[in-house]
């Protein structure tokens, strides 16, 4: 059965960004807690924005190889619903994180040869996957897409594990309908909703309109 995709609007970095994202029908809002990245946000600021805006969406914190202490610090300011891991976290590290913070964990897997086998390694441990483009020297948020004809393979493996699977990388209002035609379970967007490093309400609305149109065609 085709259902409406999950939509994560990621990389929110100001009160205005949060307000624009929260006004949409997206299912998740994402925040980057990775220092020295252009979308890094301080957890105390995010806490302020969330308390002010009270978004209905679930909140996702994005990390790269975090320590338990780093996660606990962020969680002391922001009540996250999901931890998203972009680094080289091992199965044992993910289990340790889940035990410590008691939250579901999404693991990012970069599109490349062996990616499907990597998903099998995390079977029974990851609560979801984000499939992103592999760009040298970057963890994500590059605005580069991968070969979307492979999306159904990732979705199939995630379905076999009974977990979520979102597609990230280079999704824009202009090409989102092409991706939706591959029936992803979810999409994860940051650069595709920005203009001049700020969230663009027009782009958010344009993407959500395509999502709604896609879902309506199967209802």
TrEMBL record:
Catalytic activity from the UniProt record: N-(5-phospho-beta-D-ribosyl)anthranilate = 1-(2-carboxyphenylamino)-1-deoxy-D-ribulose 5-phosphate
Pathway annotation from the record: Amino-acid biosynthesis; L-tryptophan biosynthesis; L-tryptophan from chorismate: step 3/5
Domain N-(5'phosphoribosyl) anthranilate isomerase (PRAI) stretches: 8-209
EC number of this enzyme: 5.3.1.24
Membrane-spanning residues: none
Keyword annotations of the record: Amino-acid biosynthesis, Aromatic amino acid biosynthesis, Isomerase, Tryptophan biosynthesis
Any GO molecular function: phosphoribosylanthranilate isomerase activity
Superkingdom of origin: Bacteria
Pfam families given in the database record: PRAI
Top-level EC class as recorded in UniProt: isomerase
Family: Belongs to the TrpF family.
Cited NCBIfam families: PRK01222.2-1 (NF002301)
PANTHER family: N-(5'-PHOSPHORIBOSYL)ANTHRANILATE ISOMERASE (PTHR42894)
Protein name per its UniProtKB record: N-(5'-phosphoribosyl)anthranilate isomerase
Organism listed in the record: Halobacillus campisalis
């Amino acid at each position: 059965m085709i259902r409406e995709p999950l939509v994560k609007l990621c990389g929110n970095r100001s009160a205005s960004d949060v307000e624009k994202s929260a006004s949409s029908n997206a299912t998740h809002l994402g925040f980057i807690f990775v220092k020295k990245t252009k979308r890094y946000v301080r957890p105390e600021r995010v806490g302020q924005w969330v308390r002010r805006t009270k978004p209905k969406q679930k909140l996702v914190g994005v990390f790269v190889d975090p320590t338990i202490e780093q996660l606990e610090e962020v969680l002391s300011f922001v009540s996250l619903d999901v931890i998203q891991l972009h680094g080289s976290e091992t199965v044992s590290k993910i289990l340790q994180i889940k035990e410590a913070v008691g939250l579901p964990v999404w693991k990012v897997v970069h599109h490349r040869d062996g990616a499907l086998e990597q998903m099998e390694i995390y079977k029974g441990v990851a609560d979801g996957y984000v499939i992103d483009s592999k760009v040298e020297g970057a963890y994500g948020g590059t605005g580069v897409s991968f070969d979307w004809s492979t999306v159904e393979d990732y979705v199939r493996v995630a379905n076999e594990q009974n977990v979520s699977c979102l597609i990230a990388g280079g999704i824009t209002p202009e090409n989102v309908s092409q991706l939706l035609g591959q029936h992803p379970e979810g999409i994860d967007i940051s650069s595709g909703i920005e203009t001049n490093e700020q969230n663009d309400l027009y782009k958010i609305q344009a993407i959500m309109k395509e999502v709604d149109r896609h879902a309506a065609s199967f209802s």
